[in-house]
Amino acid sequence: MSHHLSGPLKVAVTGAAGQIGYSLLFRLASGALLGPDRPVELRLLEIEPALKALEGVVMELDDCAFPTLAGVEIGADPEKIFDGVNLALLVGARPRGPGMERGDLLEANGAIFTAQGKALNSVAADDVRVGVTGNPANTNALIAMTNAPDIPAERFSALTRLDHNRAISQLSAKTDAAVTEIKKMTIWGNHSATQYPDVFHAEIGGRNAAEVVDDQAWIENDFIPTVAKRGAAIIEARGSSSAASAASATIDAARDWLLGSAANDWVSMAVKSDGSYGVPEGIIYSFPVTTHEGNWEIVQGLEIDDFSRGRMDATAAELEDERQAVTELGLI
Ligand SMILES: NC(=O)C1=CN([C@@H]2O[C@H](COP(=O)(O)OP(=O)(O)OC[C@H]3O[C@@H](n4cnc5c(N)ncnc54)[C@H](O)[C@@H]3O)[C@@H](O)[C@H]2O)C=CC1
Ligand SMILES: O=C([O-])CC(=O)C(=O)O
């Protein structure tokens, strides 16, 4: 990530006229990704019928007079919008409504990620990083990755940072610890109800989080389901899915990926499994990772007890089923 240090970072956002976009674009433009000294150029992709609304959003971006915003381009052709991009945030996809699981979106949204994977493959910058937020995020990332054979597989990730942030917030509320005191949180697996938010390796003020909590029933019956089903709870309360928090997590994930995770901490990112922790190879699975200048490494050597093993395997099995489904749909 060095050769563009001088010029603006070209950041593509898909689904830019959507709910997440309405929060994400203003954060990106205001320097939340790279700080006040690095300009960004926004490349905004939408479907044709949404371009007029997107023009309105761009008028508002103009009206903010952001010092860090070096330019904005909009359009409906991914080959034009992705041309030379260093970072692609793939947000555009249909959201779920009440009563749906994210996997129900596979067929509707899968096709988007074949076309966008192919377009990135042909026109993105050599150093491109691709973050997938649109659901079902892990398997959409698998589709985009598979359709972009010339881009190294480790340049693709799916967003589980929102789950990670939710887990920190829940743990903070339970223990009265500041969110800044909570480190080494892990989300394992799929961005779905089977995800496994793991407090057994987390720390609060340097102490083991599970020991600080000292309440296995709370961990099993409150913490894990609250984090795993938080998206559904937001849909129930708000009438539409989380948007500002999803945008915020998308920024957190991209920022840490490009600039590096903090010392003595790690982040959760869904990346291509290399078989670490017995996770089947090739699926896009959320692991604890450290990041450095646009690269990530899975944290190794964590001890996995039977409780964690069962949950890690269940979410892996769901991702294998999703991979099977998109294989049958001819998407990968
Ligand atoms: N991974 C995560 O943590 C989270 C993921 N999500 C997901 O993010 C996605 C977007 O959510 P919202 O912004 O709330 O939805 P939204 O419906 O408000 O916006 C989606 C936008 O994508 C656009 N779009 C559709 N097909 C496209 C294509 N082929 N190319 C470019 N743009 C396209 C639509 O025109 C629409 O403007 C959904 O799939 C949602 O489930 C939402 C919250 C958290
Ligand atoms: O729940 C949804 O459908 C939206 C989402 O991914 C989340 O809020 O985690």
UniProtKB/TrEMBL annotation:
Organism domain of life: Bacteria
Pfam families: Ldh_1_C, Ldh_1_N
GO biological process: malate metabolic process; tricarboxylic acid cycle
Recorded GO MF terms: L-malate dehydrogenase (NAD+) activity
EC number of the protein: 1.1.1.37
Catalysed reactions, semicolon-separated: (S)-malate + NAD(+) = oxaloacetate + NADH + H(+)
Domain (Lactate/malate dehydrogenase N-terminal): residue spans on this chain: 10-152
Keywords: NAD, Oxidoreductase, Tricarboxylic acid cycle
Matches recorded under InterPro entries: L-lactate/malate_DH, Lactate/malate_DH_C, Lactate/malate_DH_N, Lactate_DH/Glyco_Ohase_4_C, Malate_DH_AS, Malate_DH_type2, NAD(P)-bd_dom_sf
Segments traversing the membrane: none
Function (record text): Catalyzes the reversible oxidation of malate to oxaloacetate.
Main enzyme class: oxidoreductase
Gene: mdh
Binding site for substrate: 96, 102, 135, 166
UniProt family annotation: Belongs to the LDH/MDH superfamily. MDH type 2 family.
Residues the record marks as active site: 191 (proton acceptor)
PANTHER family referenced in this protein's UniProt entry, alphabetically: MALATE DEHYDROGENASE (PTHR23382)
Lineage: Bacteria, Bacillati, Actinomycetota, Actinomycetes, Propionibacteriales
Protein name: Malate dehydrogenase
Domain Lactate/malate dehydrogenase C-terminal span(s) in chain numbering: 160-327
Binding site for NAD(+): 15-21, 109, 116, 133-135
